[in-house]
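re: the backbone from monday

yeah here it is again, tokenized this time
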């Protein structure tokens, strides 16, 4: 059980009162896509459950329940993680970026544009995890080789495209990001 309060991200006496109203829950505060949020979570609540069920950020997918597919990847304090392997309590105080926070209003991020332009998706189920994994990869390798891209996507599965279009999209997105940074 998770109880979310999206109005105030500071802990207070109200938190203690709310936690007492929901036994076996702990208040946490996270910043998701630049927005401070607070929730009351059980110890067993996974980050993916918090994001999807309480914050309605359903771009973070649950694909396998075994941490094999990568469809649940988010950036936690700037590093890609499989949110199905992180307890919500472990994210207390963290900054989280989901696919919903990547675009700037109606303007897609260069990686999102590249996935669209180069057909790096078909059904789209793996796409959020692929894009966020690629974003983390490009932070360390702004001009990646195909081998670096494939290594960076290890643990992300696509059952539709093969990976040629995804690799092409990441290369194109990387080039756009380098242009924008110049």
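seq for it, each position gets an aa:
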């Amino acid at each position: 059980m998770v109880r979310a309060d999206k109005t105030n991200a500071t802990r207070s006496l109200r938190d203690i009162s709310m936690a007492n109203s929901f036994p076996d829950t702990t208040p946490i505060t996270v910043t998701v896509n630049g927005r401070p949020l607070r929730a009351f979570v059980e110890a067993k609540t996974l980050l993916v459950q918090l994001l999807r069920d309480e914050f309605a950020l359903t771009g973070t997918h649950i694909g396998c329940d075994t941490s094999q597919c990568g469809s649940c990847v988010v950036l936690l304090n700037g590093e890609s993680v499989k949110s199905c392997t992180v307890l919500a309590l472990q994210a207390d105080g963290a900054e989280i970026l989901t696919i919903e926070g990547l675009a700037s209003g109606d303007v897609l991020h260069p990686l999102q544009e590249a996935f669209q332009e180069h057909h790096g998706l078909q059904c789209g189920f793996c796409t959020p995890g692929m894009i966020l994994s690629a974003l983390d990869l490009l932070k360390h390798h702004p001009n990646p080789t195909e081998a670096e891209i494939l290594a960076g996507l290890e643990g992300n599965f696509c059952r539709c495209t093969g990976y040629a279009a995804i690799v092409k999209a990441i290369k194109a997105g990387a080039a756009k990001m380098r242009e924008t940074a110049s």
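Helices lie at 13-21, 47-54, 110-117, 127-140, 146-152, 164-181. The longest helix spans residues 164-181.
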